[in-house]
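Repro:
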Amino acid sequence: MNLFTPFALEEFMSRFEQGVDINLSESGVHPLTLGELLDLAGTDADRLRDIEINYPHVEGIPPLREAIASLYPGAGPENVLVTVGAIEANYDVTRALVPAGERMAVMVPNYLQIWGVARNHGADLRTFGLDQDAGWALDLPGLEQAVAGGARLIAVCNPNNPTGRTLTPAEMTAVADAADVSGAWLLADEVYRGAERLADQETPSFWGMTDRVIAIGSMSKAYGLPGLRIGWAVAPTDVVEQVWRRHEYTTISASMLANHLAVLALSPEVRPKLLERTRRYIRAGYPVFADWIDAHQGLLRADPPDAAAIAFVGYRAELPSEALVDRIRREQSVLVVPGALFGVERHLRVSFGLPPSYLAEGLDRIGRVLESF
């Protein structure tokens, strides 16, 4: 029997995120309330009373699949499978497309769920990097080496978690070309599309760059609705069928109510308002974060993220990241994520897409620990 590798990041979050005064470990912006979503949609809550709390369409209700498909040029609802968060989409795609013993290449640093799924199910797991010394640029030779001789799947996260970096058009083309040359499927986790820090244009999707792309999205990050637990995979119809069959083994479906609320959120009237809200939180929080980094020059450094409400902070101290995070949690009741859980030591992932006063207090408390070094 294969030894089981726990999902270390989510185990860490499960244990500690509900037990601190200030949580800077989350990777999205401050979430909406139900009332805020309904107000944006111009919908009275009484309308929800008529929704029958039954099973929805297992693959997602038709209006939701149509709304998601409209975000990917050339896609139709038949290309969409709605899942319980992007995490289920990632899991089901990986299980459908990567048999035990087959090669899979995963970008690192990354949200290491797919890495763990592949490891636990006996894949021939390879990694390729983002080069920290080059501002987290794609290590193209590393990618080519990881897929040399063929691969079943290449997994990327763009914009990236935890660095917030967005691949350049040339880097995206290189990834797509590597998939074509190696015969691999390309799984693109794109949950941060729409959460840009500087640009008002959404980060391009990999969808359409080759015929073998599976684009993953969710309502959690760019939309501020993590509690809906709505994600999706957009893929060729034969892949949708394969993933759908795994979906029936895992969750069967997302909830009826979540399906309907996601339709409201992705409507042409509401979706731009949600993205504007997300960018507003990111753009208000980042200067608070940047000032904090500047105040600790010589100890901290962070490349400005292109997108997402998170930054990957390097620190100059001998204390391993898990020990440092534990000390911050115990002494100051603030939670951030150790870089070790992304495979990169001497780093912390810090969220800044939060109300500025809450963020400033959390950073100030972290600073009290850092000042002891």
